[in-house]
Every structure is written in C-alpha cells, then in structure tokens.
Write a structure and sequence with these properties.
binds zinc ion; alpha/beta; single chain; seven-stranded mixed beta sheet; 697 residues; 23 helices; 22 strands
Length: 697
C-alpha cells in the first residue's frame, strides 16, 4: 500500500507541477490531510513525499514548456518521433535556436514540425521555418509549438541503437506491406503501432468497439515479446538468472525499437524490477512493481502524468492485477479467467475514456475476450514472418488481422455509453448481483436510464440552436429525422464537442466553415475527428489560410466530402433547405468572403451570414428573414442601413462573448431597436434555442 501511495502522490505532484495544477494539488493535499487524521499516517507521509517529488519534476518540465517562441528562425534538435496524424511530420526536441544570425542553446518544449520530408528518428536536424504557439494534440501528448517548414537539413545520423531500431522497423514495414492481403496494414499496426496503412473506417470501428489498444504498441506487446525470449531461453537451456538478464536486455531493446512509447517504458520498468528482484533474491509482486514503475517514470518524465497512453496503460495494468478477485474458482476456468482480465482492464480504463472521449463501448470486454487470442496469434506469427522474411507467415498474420477488422466492423454498431449509461449499467449490475435488491430495482434503473438517454435523441420539431461558444459563432440545425447541420464551431473544441455530446450527436450531415477565423473555424478541426461528418462546405474564391488548410486536410483524411461553395449552391438536409448567397466573387477582406447561407424551414427563413461586412452586404439581394444572425458579432463593419432593412421585425441573434473589440457596438444595438427587432444575445441568454414546428393546416 505504501508503494501505491507513493505512486499516487508523485502522480498528483507531477500533474500539479504542470500547467493548471492548483486544483489537483488542492485535492491531493486534502486527501493527505484526511489520511493523516485517520490511522494511516505512514501512507499519508509517503504520499506527501511523493507529491513534493512530483511537483519538483513537474515544474522543471513546465518551465521548459513555457519557453515557447513565436516567429521565424532555425531550430536544431533531435527527432524523437514521426507522425502521420494530425499531419505528416515529426516531433523535435530542440537543442539550440538561431535568430537574426545569433545561435544560442535553447531547451524549449518538444515541438511538432510539419514538413514534407520526415527524417529518421534520433537524427540531428536543423529546421528553418515559422513557429506558431497553440496547444494541440499530437501522438497522445499536448504540444504547444508547431513549426512549419520546407527546409529540413539533416546534420547527423541516429545513434547506433536507434539506427538498429529504425532498421528493424523499416524491415518489418517492408516485409509486411509487400503482402497483398487486405489485413496487412492492420498487422503492421499490431507490430509497430504504425497505422498509416489502416483506413479511417477501420480505426473508427476499432475505437467504437474498444479495440484501439491493439494498434498502440503497449504492455501486451511486451508480454508477447518476453514470451518469445522465454521460448528461446528454453531452447538454449539457460540458467534462470541468465534467462532473467536476457529478459531485461531484450525488453529494453524492444523499448528502443518501439521508440520510447510511454506504455512500453512502463511495462519494461515493471518487468525489469520483477526480474532483477528474482536475480538478487528480493521477491517483487506486480502491484509494487507497477507503483515503482509509475514513480520512476513520472520523476524522469512528468509530462507522462497527462499522457493518455500512459494513463490507459497504468489503469489497465492495475485492473489486470486486481482481476484475480473477480469470479475466483468458476469453471471452465480459462473462460472466466480471461473474462475477468478483460472486464477488469476495461472497467479500469473506463473513467479515462469517458473523461477524454465522452463515451465507452458497452460490449468491449466481450469483444476483447474474442479478439485477444486472434491479435496475439497475428502478432506472433506476423513478427516471426517479418523477421525471417516469410511471406507465408505474414499472410497468415494478415488473415488474423482481417478477422479483427470484421469483428470491429460488427461490434462498432453496438451501444456506446455516456456517463449516464455507465452509471446505469453499473447500478443494474450491482442490483442484479447483490442479494438484497433484485429484478425490481434493476428494471426501475433500466427505465430511468432509458428516460435519461431519451433526452439526447433528436428533437420532435426542427430546431436551430445558436450555441453559446463565447466570442465566436456556432449554429446547430437539428431535424427530427436525426439529420444535423453545424455552421461554424467557435474557437474552443471542448465547448463544441460538449455541446454535440450533450445532444447525443455522433453524426453530422453537413459542416459549414464560413471563413478561416479561429472564432468560427478553430473548433471544427477537432469536431471533424470527434464525430463522423459527411460533408464540409468552405468558402470558394478565398486565398489559402493555415486554419482553412488544416480543416480541409483533416476532412480529406477522414473521407469527408469537401466542397468549396459560392453563390448558387444549394442542398436540402432533413427539414432544412439551404441556399448559398455568398461569396459571389473574390473580396479583398476575408470576412466578406464568408459562406452566407439562407435557410428555409417549416415556412420560416433564416439568414446565417458569417462575418460579412458592408462591401458584401451591399451586393446581397434585398432580404427579409424571420430569424437572422447579426454579422461579425455586432461589429461596426456592418452597414447600418442594410441591417435596419434586413432585420426589420425579425428575431435577431448576436453571438458574442467577452471581447476587447467592443462587440456589439451601440450603433448596431440602436439600429436593431429602431428596426423593431427582437434581440437575443448568447453572452446574456446562453444557448438560444428556436423551434420551427410546421404550421397546422
Ligand atoms: Zn467572427
């Protein structure tokens, strides 16, 4: 228990040393005080020491991260990982920075380099380009600095042990992709975690069925690898301590080959502790090894506290260590045992999945019981095939991967649970398994859950919601048949995703990004990945802009139909028919080039104009909508005369938050009052919901 307390303490400390950790720290200290007040003084002390250690290392990391830098220059550093999502590029650990001809050592944060050429991992490079500072999610970690570059110069090759890792990966990649079987792409994912050859549909299905961990090189790969070493040691008839030493060396070679994946490091530390314990005669159980592995990892690399891969890996391992207590002694033992492992691991990672992704697949423990042996077979057979270069074995492994693809496709349709659903399922299982209550309570809970989830189904009448996204626009159109249109998403992806999640929206028929300003388009980039989107409209005739390029790139990768629209485009989606009023030509100002949409629903009309200003407004035909969004958050870029004519007697919405621009201006509010418009504001009224039931005959 003391070991676990130390691990928890270090974790809290590391997390609180990183940005925004005051709340975490408060909670941790409160817990320690509570523990100290009860009889658990030693545990409280260990936990407290852990917190101090964690804070120290967390702050060191945070200091490096805050040394961000915006502008043009040359960064020298080491390549630590190559990525294909969200864009093709690599992660770079900086060593020095050259600006205005002056070079100085610089230990800034790990940056994401977007470039056409991707050098080998561990190569030393000099990258010339422009950096921007903005938080984003790359390869499971938060990256604050992105460097766009066309000029990547290689200064030195990788060190020998990385070069060996790169060679092994290249060889495995070469042998596996030479197979013509459709499952070979996924097999490569099992073996190296490289999912660039796997379609978005398969990745999505795996996520929805709870199988994503199979393509993240993780602790289970370490176990399989170790099993291989054991078999080899058996053949060579090695003494036990030699076998253990070989295991330790082998596992760390695996860490190098998989490029310091956090979950592999965690597993390698655990394995090394257990094996070293055996060599020197100190028994080390799994729980202690896990706790020590967490402590060591977080002191060395406190960022891991916020790394999803690491969190999932630790939670799953802890779950598996506790799984022995589920259904002991039932027969057939192999079935109950594997079910217990699967249920325990999935339950342990559930809170993290809910927190990060908002939903968990209900059936994932059962899917995993079926998939685990297939994945293990594929991985082992595929790995041997890749090493000895046998196409036959690689094909056999690929067949296994095809079975997993089929299973994922089948299970993706099964229910996804949100927080309410998880609480419901937990309550039902508790009611069924405990002896005092029973069926009656279970059925009552089931009904309650059904009522709660009903609230998230499509509205009964066509509904338009002007979402309160702070300073920015986001308008949601929902049809009773479940069809959805989202016009802009605001700036904050978390706000946008929460709005969709609370309405149970997992699919959007059309997303319109009116123009490339962050207060309209920034959140859409992540929305594209969070829900499945059919079609994206962006303005035609506009110069390229980084945000617009990024949105289009994500859409292309997700297989979304992207259309650049201009005056004359139209589309009917559910109860809404949409007509594009602009842009009609190329404008000097980006705002004037916004996609302006005229919506007809149940006999009412809506104008969603983006941020168009006086120039584009003057070229619009005369419009008298029943409902309109005021362009550009009520800025004085709008022509007062045009606004008075257009908004006369209408319901108008100003989508605005705290801002330094003075939106909405007094002139605009005056003009709306003069025009007898009914004014709604998202900063005062929150989400503005309007229903459009068809008029009764
Ligand atoms: Zn705007």
């Amino acid at each position: 228990v003391e070991f676990a307390a130390g691990a928890v303490g270090v974790w809290f400390g590391a997390a609180s040393g990183l940005a925004g950790g005051v709340v975490v720290l408060g909670l941790a200290v409160a817990a320690v005080v509570l523990l100290a007040m009860t009889r658990h003084r030693t545990i409280a002390l260990v936990c407290f020491v852990g917190i101090l250690a964690g804070i120290g290392s967390g702050q060191r990391t945070e200091a490096a991260r805050n040394a961000t830098w915006d502008g043009i220059g040359v960064v020298r550093g080491t390549v630590i990982q190559d990525t294909t999502t969200p864009q093709r590029g690599f992660l770079l650990r900086p060593i020095s920075l050259e600006r205005n001809g002056v070079t100085q050592p610089w230990s800034g944060p790990v940056m994401f380099v977007v470039s056409g050429a991707v050098p080998q991992v561990d190569a030393d490079v000099a990258v010339r380009g422009v950096t921007t500072v903005r938080s984003r999610w790359v390869a499971g970690r938060t990256i604050t600095t992105t460097l766009r570059s066309r000029d990547v110069q290689i200064l030195g090759p990788p060190r020998p042990w990385f070069a060996i890792g790169n060679k092994i990966r290249a060889r495995v990649g070469g042998v596996v992709t030479a197979s013509s079987r459709p499952g070979s792409g996924l097999l490569l994912g099992f073996l190296t975690g490289d999912t660039s050859q796997v379609s978005e549909k398969v990745l999505d299905d795996m996520k929805r069925s709870g199988l994503t961990h199979a393509v993240a090189v993780s602790g289970s790969n370490v176990a399989l690898f170790l099993a291989g070493i054991w078999a080899l040691a058996g053949v060579l008839r090695l003494r036990p301590d030699l076998r253990h030493l070989l295991g330790i060396v082998g596992v760390w070679a695996f860490v190098l080959a998989t490029r310091w994946e956090p979950s592999v490091i965690r597993a390698a530390i655990m394995v090394s502790l257990v094996l070293a314990g055996r060599v020197v005669g100190i028994p080390m159980d799994g729980a202690r090894a896990l706790s020590l592995a967490v402590i060591v990892s977080l002191i060395v690399a406190p960022d891991l506290a916020n790394n999803v891969g690491f969190q999932l890996s630790v939670a799953a391992t802890a779950g598996i260590l506790l799984s022995g207590r589920l259904w002991p002694g039932r027969s057939p033992q192999w079935l109950w045992r594997s079910l217990a492992v699967s249920v325990a691991a999935q339950s342990a990672v559930m809170p993290i999945l809910l927190w990060r992704f908002g939903a968990v697949p209900l059936m994932s423990p059962f899917v995993n019981v079926v998939a685990a042996p297939v994945i293990a077979f594929s991985t082992i057979v595929g790995a041997i095939g890749a090493v000895v270069g046998s196409g036959l074995l690689v094909d056999a492994g690929s067949r296994g991967a095809e079975l997993v693809i089929w299973l994922a496709d089948f299970a993706a349709e099964w229910p996804q649970l949100s927080v309410a659903g998880v609480v419901g399922v937990a309550a039902i299982s508790w009611a069924l398994f405990s002896k005092r209550v029973g069926w009656v309570v279970a059925v009552t809970i089931l009904v309650a859950v059904a009522v709660i989830t009903r609230a998230a189904s499509p509205p009964v009448a066509p509904t338009v919601t002007f979402l309160d996204v702070g300073q920015g626009d986001a308008t949601l159109l929902q049809s009773p048949d479940g069809k959805v249109v989202l016009v802009d998403g605001g700036i904050d992806p978390l706000v946008a995703k929460a709005a969709l999640r609370s309405r149970g929206i997992k699919r959007i028929d059309l997303v319109i990004g009116t123009h490339a300003d962050a207060d309209h388009m920034a959140a859409l980039v992540e929305v594209m990945s969070a829900v499945s989107v059919d079609r994206l409209w962006v303005p035609a005739l506009q110069p390229s802009a980084p945000l617009l390029d990024e949105l289009i790139a994500v859409a292309n990768r997700r297989g979304v139909l992207v259309e650049e629209v201009r005056t004359g485009a139209s589309l009917t989606i559910g109860a809404f028919s949409l007509q594009v009023l602009g842009p009609s030509r190329r404008f000097a100002a980006e705002n004037d080039g916004s996609v302006a949409t005229w919506v007809t629903v149940s006999g009412s009309t809506l104008l969603l104009p983006g941020d168009i200003g006086a120039v584009a407004q003057a070229e619009m035909p005369p419009l008298r909508p029943d409902v309109m969004l005021v362009p550009h958050h009520g800025s004085n870029t709008t022509d007062i005369g045009w606004l008075g004519d257009t908004a006369a007697g209408a319901r108008v919405v100003i989508s605005v938050g705290e801002n330094d621009f003075g939106h909405p201006t007094a002139e605009i509010l005056d003009a709306l009052a003069q025009a007898d418009a009914v004014v709604y504001r998202t900063d005062r009224d929150g989400d503005i919901v309007m229903e459009f039931p068809a008029a009764e005959e």
